[in-house]
Write a structure and sequence with these properties.
By secondary structure, this protein is of the alpha+beta class. The protein is built from ten helices and 30 strands.
């Protein structure tokens, strides 16, 4: 099948927000247009999308194809971004106008009434976001008054390189060190600081400046509220900027989805195709309601069993899986679930199984392998191509470890059993409706083709993706 969706309006969604439009006036289109024969003939070693959208996308210091800055702000030796020189600041002013701009430790923000076309996703190899004039810019920093840099670091000997993630064992050691002084429900590792979420409503009180402001040699901040930290960071202004439905020129009406039947029109199914559940049973509260989502990847287990991954929450009322609508082709049935990953496993019909291929993922990088969490590097870029979104880029900048819910009477859950998630910034025109349709689509690294997870939880600006370590341990790999 062609990498180009047969429903062009879906990919066109990404051109309607000028603050994230990487396409308009681009010197070279980021999209690829191979014919079905050309695409099928690509070998794994030559299957990267052309034109090349990224250089060195496997970690910090990547350069996006629209990044024309004549300098590189990534300091490879010291593994950090440097401050622009005077001549580089002048280039930024000449290129992007006289609006304000600034930099965090890992990204630039540039204020622009008329953002450049096309938008670069990096400037000088540093991730960049464009904001409107006077728009409040919020960094992910909690405001609790608990940290005190003079309180002893409880694990000063524990260290890992700057702008990288700790290992699972290092995370466990850190949580063990915090246990005597704080009741932690979640921990988030950012590029330059650590956010510790404290249990709320457990009867414990913390005085201002009573907790260590440096843990494992890193600045450590605390969040103590009923709502999780990222819910407190919602940025409505930014959400409107990247929401294509907010721009009159879009004139969408209902947000479009790719409802083309690829089995009938191209004889192949791939990741990112539209799937829909069967109707719920008579008498249920959701009778007549069908949930739609994006196809995942086809997997094979060590014993030869093959399945397709789909979004678990989209198939709660029916195990029947159809493409693209419930009144068209039934392609399989849900036979198992992994609720903690929001994955359901589908046994495909013989025809659908024969025609499903992982070797094409529309405009996104082709999936080649499943990744363990330890293989996902901070600063790496990935792609998703959902049936409601077209191509969207993601930047992995954080890692979360969440305490699992403990069943009544269950013994204490070891820190090593906490659930790990990647935190990815979304670089694309999205809203809640678009993100719902993206659920289930694989998140594929641009550099390696590794699948780091499946699109699931999102706040519109970030997505939170469960790691696949336990799933891989069961013996699953790409078919």
């Amino acid at each position: 099948m062609s990498p180009v969706r047969l429903s062009p309006q879906v990919q066109r969604i990404q051109t309607y927000s000028p603050y994230i439009d990487i396409y308009t006036d681009a010197l070279m289109s980021p999209l690829r247009f191979q014919s079905s024969e050309e695409h099928a003939a690509l070998t794994l070693s030559h299957a990267h999308p052309e034109p090349k959208r990224w250089e060195n996308a496997g970690g910090w210091g990547a350069r996006h194809m629209n990044d024309r800055a004549p300098f590189n702000l990534w300091d490879e030796k010291n593994q950090e971004f440097r401050t622009p020189k005077d001549s580089e600041l002048q280039w930024l002013c000449d290129k992007f106008g006289d609006g304000q701009f600034g930099m965090s430790g890992w990204y630039l923000w540039i204020e622009a009434a008329n953002p450049p076309q096309p938008i670069p996703l990096t400037v000088g190899c540093m991730p960049v976001i464009f904001i409107g004039p006077g728009e409040e810019h919020l960094e992910p920093i909690p405001q609790c008054p608990y940290p005190n840099p003079r309180v002893r670091d409880p694990c000063a000997a524990l260290q890992w390189p700057t702008m990288t993630f700790p290992s699972k064992e290092q995370n466990t050691a850190l949580l063990v060190a915090l246990e005597p002084i704080a009741n932690v429900r979640e921990i988030i590792y950012m590029p330059h600081w650590t956010i510790v979420e404290l249990e709320y409503g457990d009867g414990r009180n913390y005085e201002p400046k009573s907790l260590p402001g440096i843990v494992a040699g890193r600045t450590t901040l605390y969040h103590h509220a009923e709502a999780p930290f990222y819910e407190s960071m919602k940025n409505k202004a930014r959400e409107r900027r990247i929401d294509p439905s907010q721009y009159p020129s879009a004139n969408f009406g209902p947000m479009p989805q790719d409802g083309q039947n690829y089995l009938r029109q191209s004889s192949q199914l791939t990741p990112g195709c539209r799937l829909e559940s069967g109707s719920s049973l008579p008498g249920s509260q959701t009778v007549g309601i069908n949930a739609a989502t994006s196809a995942g990847v086809k997997l094979r287990r060590f014993d030869g069993k093959e399945v397709l991954t789909v979004s678990h929450h989209s198939f709660l009322t029916s195990q029947e899986v159809y493409h693209p609508f419930a009144n068209e082709d039934r392609i399989g049935d849900v036979i198992d679930t992994r609720e903690e990953l929001d994955i359901a496993l589908v046994k495909l019909t013989p025809t659908a199984s024969e025609r499903f291929t992982n070797n094409c993922y529309f405009q996104a990088e082709t999936p080649r392998m499943l990744l363990q969490g330890s293989q996902i590097r901070q600063g790496s870029w990935s792609e998703v191509d959902g049936m409601s979104s077209g191509l969207v880029s993601l930047l992995t900048y954080g890692k979360r470890y969440l305490k699992p819910k403990r069943p009544a009477g269950h013994p204490k859950i070891d820190f090593g059993e906490w659930k790990a998630y990647s935190v990815d910034a979304i670089f694309g025109a999205v809203n809640n409706t678009i993100c719902d349709g993206m659920c289930g689509a694989p998140i594929v690294q641009c550099e390696t083709g590794g699948v780091g997870g499946f699109f699931h939880l999102s706040d519109g600006l970030n997505c939170f993706t469960a790691h696949l370590d336990d799933f891989i341990a069961e013996g699953w790999q790409l078919a």
